Amino acid sequence: MQGVFRADLLERKAKIRAYHMRLLTILAVSVIVLVCLTTYAAWRHFLSDLPKIASNEEIWTANRKSSLEMVDANGETITIRGPRYGRRVSVDALPAHVLQAFLAVEDARFFEHGGVDLWSIGRAVFENLTAGHTVQGASTITQQLVKNVYLSPEQTFKRKLQEMVLAWQIDSRLTKKQILEIYLNRIYFGQNAYGIDAAAWRFFSKHPSKLTLAEASMLAGLPKAPGRLAVDLTAAPAIERRAVVLQRMVAAGFITQATAEATMREPVALKVTPDIPEGQMGYVIDMAQKEVESVGKQVAPDRILRLTVDAKIQASAVQAVQALVGDGTGTGVTQAALIAMDRQGRILAIVGGRNYDESKYNRATMAKRQPGSSFKPFVYAAALEKGMTPDTIRVDKPISFGGWRPRNFNGGYSGAMSLSTALTRSINTIAVQLASEVGIDRLILLAQRLGIDSELPRNLSISLGAGEVTLLDMTRAYATLANDGVRVDPYLIERIDTTRGTVAFQRESKAPVQVYEPLRARQMTAMLADVVAFGTGKRARLPGGREAAGKTGTSQNFRDAWFVGYTSDIICGVWVGNDSSSPMNGVTGGTLPALIWEDFMAAAHEGKPLSPLPTLDDLKRPSPNTLAAFYESLADMFAAAGGQDVAALPALRKLPNPTAAAPAPAGNVGR
Q1: Structure pTM?
Q2: Three-state DSSP class for 619?
Q3: In contact, 321 and 596? CB cutoff 8 Å
Q4: Are residues 355 and 324 in the same domain?
Q5: Given 10, 16, 213, 617, which residue has the most CB atoms within 10 angstroms?
């Protein structure tokens, strides 16, 4: 008997199935949402702040503290301020035993995993659980690189997870050789040494390619605890760590047990490279550190500054200052400054004070003092520019300008004389008269064109050096005269390299800026040469017949004394005085400053060939080309005359005048 068809039952079952499906769907969606939310929360907590690897280059430089290594013009390191970063060393340049020592102790399976060694992690977990405490780690070289470059040293699960993720990323974008090379060049070894090059030089005074097995195994053991192990490599902790490295090398099959034992018996032969004392190079170093900050673009943290300073010339400058400036006994002088440069603006030496250790204040670049008569060349340069000549006559006589009556240093007057003689004898009254004729504004503009950056007062007293300027200003302005009127801009940094061998900054050659007419600049040089040869600067005369030009300067009440001058090779300025501006005991620019200048310049020119400066007679004498043109034209006139009176020929009046002052050639003019 067939049952009765119950449509209501079928409908009820269908509703129950539909209800269950809705429950399952809701449950499934809930699980998916929960998983997504949990994943998002986990990502947000653990990986949202994961550092991004912007480029392979960044792995070399990220999170490096700023360091400045300074190298002189001859390539010798002057000092290192900050961490000691070694030069980049390729793994191809290292002996096998050096690489094997690091691989054995840090990551024996380095070439077998993908940045994270899961097998070693499992082994370490088992060993640590069995021992009941941590006895083994599992960080790979790639993970250690990540930790040193991108992450903090804190021991948390989050940091460890980020370390693993970044290690996978680095392993996928770099070759194993690249990873090992960056690791060896960035790892910290202690004693302020970063990278295997810095460590090899620091502890053994040799290039890493020359490391022995004993030395390599010692260095390979340091990164585990550099602060503790590197304190003394001859102490038991460091020696025990070296033994561990050697045993790991045996276990990895890199060396035999006999070799390891023989190496363990070797005494530790340290040859530590000490830190270079800055000493009296401190003024140079401070100035270079300030100059590097002015470089416009971002410069890498591992900087090697290649300076223009010559260490030998710098030592001569320090010696010249310290030999003649003491504690003030007798002279009343307690401080001095010196700066020297060449005609291209390269600073060769700078002494900012008598003793850097006692005072780091750089008087050569920062102190503004009255230059006295050493400012007068700018007055005469302005007079020449207005049309006067060295032979122009002016009268040394009593003068008055608005109640101001300037007098000469000796109190007397000498009557009529040429401008050249007036500058040689440093006549005050004629300098003031010239400034009045030229005009203060024109004088100030010329001084600024030549290189004076300091603000100058707008009154006639600046003709006698009443304004305040720096020694750097004065030396730069004289350098422009020495450079035939082409502006000289001093600098100390020639180039900035990185420890990786790249160039971060290269000083570019600038187009010459002619700020003063070349012939007049040479006339000024000739006049200043007479100051040294016959005038107030006689004590600055150099030995061996080397010609020099310069000017003395003494401010009111003997508070400042200057000598600024040059040869065809070097421009140098010297200032002496007291920080308190107290008067000296009759010291003038022609005494102590001139003696310091001569002492330094004589040493700085050792081995340099003699090169003459122009003289006024040279500048008046016609050039060979002018004479040739004159006589050739004269011969043509005689030939054309055919016996006529040549004086009657109109063309004769157009002949070049052989006695007219002709522009000298671009180089220095000989006597």
Answers
A1: 0.82
A2: helix
A3: yes
A4: yes
A5: 213
